[in-house]
């Protein structure tokens, strides 16, 4: 079973690239982020024509998450995180697919920091920790997949100095990510590739792609029940280099059925 996460950076603008990737790699489950589409304008017909059922939590112009499943419809479990009823941003969607609990996550960026946006990021991460703990208590195989907007370690960035003031790699952001790991979640990519660059994002500016000046912020976190079944994990880097591509590359893990 192949589960992937892909920040598409606008599903309508990147639809040809998304369909191309689905057809060429055929993931069983695809968690999408940054749809930038309302619920009404989500391209359901195109997704179904490619062989995938879908659920989505859209928002016009920004944010938005979805879960696609090959040959079936995901069974929705939860949309949004509890803890701040006034928070209506579309950043979290959870479903059961093929016997596995899957969440699609678009964690707040947090810039500029310090400030209200960074405070919101840390509060959101605490809410995610609470939900993750509840999922673990259910003892189901689970994967929390998405754009975490966190660079976990210095080895996950092309230049520590260039990003040292960014919210993505502040000590508080990293500590919150480690808290997830300490709960019992396994970072699929680092489990299979413990060293070396495994970038998932390259900015559109300053020739970042051409210079391979990237960093790793798209993660698949596996519960013990899923981590025990992990076969492989990787990044579909080549898709970042295609015409009118997202600034993220699809990132995936394979677990035994």
Automatic annotation (TrEMBL):
The active site is at residues 106, 147, 248. The record marks 248 as: Interaction with DNA substrate. Its cofactor is Mg(2+); Mn(2+). Keywords: Hydrolase, Magnesium, Manganese, Metal-binding. The keyword Oxidoreductase does not apply. The record marks 149 as: Transition state stabilizer. The keyword Transcription does not apply. It comes from the Bacteria. The record marks 218 as: Important for catalytic activity. Probably binds two magnesium or manganese ions per subunit. This is Exodeoxyribonuclease-3. It comes from Sphingobium boeckii.
